[in-house]
Amino acid sequence: MLKEVVGTPSFCWVSEMSEKRDYYEVLEVAKDASSADLKNAFRSLARKYHPDRSKEDNAEEKFKEIQEAYAVLSDEQKRAQYDRFGHDGPAGSPFGGFGGGGGFNINLEDILGGDFFSNIFGGGGGAGRQSRRRGSDIRMFHTVDLKKIFQGSQEEVVVDLPVACTKCAGTGAKDGNISDCGECNGQGKVRMRQQVGPFVQDVVRDCPTCRGSGHQIDERCEACRGDGKEIKSSTLRFNIPAGAEAGTRLRMRGKGGPAPNGKGEDGDLFIEIEVEVHPWFERSNADLIMSLPLGYSDLVLGTSIKLEHIDGKELVLKIPPYSNSGDTIEIKKRGLPRNRGSGRGDVIVLLKLHMPKKVDKKSKKMLQELKPVLGPADILDRIKDDAIERRN
Q: Which region holds residue 18: left if phi is over 0, alpha if psi is between -120 and 50, else beta?
């Protein structure tokens, strides 16, 4: 069994040896595998068994075994010795005789790719490559009524938004004077070393002193207290397209938070549309749905009702005689404009029977007299007839 002793950038192996798995078997490749085959196999297995991601019980041991196998087989000289002598090496030394204490170093970013390296090991990028700095995005809500959604609207609102401090030009420093960070020499990044199993890996991260900006402030601006921002009222003008859905976001570039230290790109402002609740309409895409409570006499005799509509024209609802509660009436092309394509949706009216909360004695007497006419003669026959109608 090999025991690892970690304490320096390299590692050494001590103690006794026992039988080890074949390195080609570990990487699940053939003995004539190319360098590309080895790299692809290692990347796949490293993703699968990395201790920070894998849920396998033996992930850590597997990961170390995979690292060891690839370290040997990816080196042409060590691979040739391994193919000839096996794990013992020409001199019978541990770890295949490939470095009695010298160990090996592998650049995992080159092997695994930048994205995987960044996700797993917290690194990314090269030394001296400062990340792009931009201001934060801001989201605000704007409420309109259904009529504006139907017509489309040009809106003008006054809001308080952060802007770059005028006194320090957004730098956060007195008189706008800033200097390069002494920790990272103005690069915004620092290189750190960390031990990952048998590897010693260089990791590039944001400088903790300047938080990745590459700058430091010697004396803070009194106006913004070093924040580099101030709040000012701004007048925004934007268009709401006809038929816009609730939750639609309008983007205003450069109207968000100012760039850090006055250098870079300002963030964006997103205006999210909210729609006021209408007194009787509910929306389903481009269709408008409403429920219409009617008295029993209106359902039996039929009626006509006129309503104010969002398109400015009167909406006429014609209820045919002998309608039932639960029936629907569709009025074509009187809904909202469709977002995609031409035309408008429909108005769909659900008929409901209005039930009075209280009835006086005279009305009760009249209803009692009408009961033989209003109600079915045989309730069971009526139930059967309704079931047949639904099936047909």
A: beta
For the domain covering 3-106, report its CATH number: 1.10.287.110
- Exposure class string for 272-306: b at 16+ Cβ within 10 A, else e: ebebeeeeebebeebbbbbebebeeebbeeebeee
Q: Give the Cα-Cα-Cα angle 112, 118, 121 (nearest 5 degrees).
A: 85
pTM: 0.55
Q: What does the domain layout of the chain look like in residue ranges? A: 3-106, 282-391
What token pair was written down for 224? 């913004």
> Dihedral sign, CA of 324, 330, 336, 340?
positive
Q: Which of 155, 163, 387 is nearest to 256 (CA)?
A: 163
Pairing of strands 282-284, 328-331: unpaired
Which residues make Cβ contacts (< 8 Å) with residue 321, sequence separation at least 6?
A: 300, 301, 302
- Crossing angle of helices 59-73 and 35-49, in 10° steps, is 170
Burial class (CB in 10 A: 0-12, 13-18, 19+), 155: middle
Q: Give 142's contacts (C-beta < 8 A, 6+ positions apart).
A: 155, 157, 271, 272, 273, 274
Helix and strand tally (H, E) in the chain?
10, 17
Tell me which residue has tokens 């894998």.
Answer: 54
CATH-assigned architecture of domain 282-391 = Sandwich (2.60)
Question: How far apart are the C-alpha atoms of 123 and 117, rounded to whole Å?
Answer: 6
Residue tagged 């309503």 (tokens): 307
For the chain, 392 residues long, the average pLDDT of each consecutive 10-residue run is 33 41 89 88 84 75 86 87 72 41 40 42 39 80 92 92 89 81 82 70 79 80 87 92 90 90 86 92 92 91 92 92 92 88 89 88 83 70 70 69
The C-alpha atoms of residue 200 and residue 127 are separated, in whole angstroms, by 17
The H or E element containing residue 65 is: helix 59-73
In eight-state DSSP terms, residue 175 is G
Cα distance between residue 21 and residue 23, in whole Å? 6
The phi and psi torsions of 73 (rounded to 5 degrees) equal: -75, -20
The CA distance from 87 to 93, in Å, is 8
Q: Which helix H or strand E contains 149, and what residues bound it?
A: helix 146-151
- Helix or strand (DSSP H, E) at 155: strand 153-164
Residue 388, C-beta contacts closer than 8 angstroms, at least 6 positions apart: none
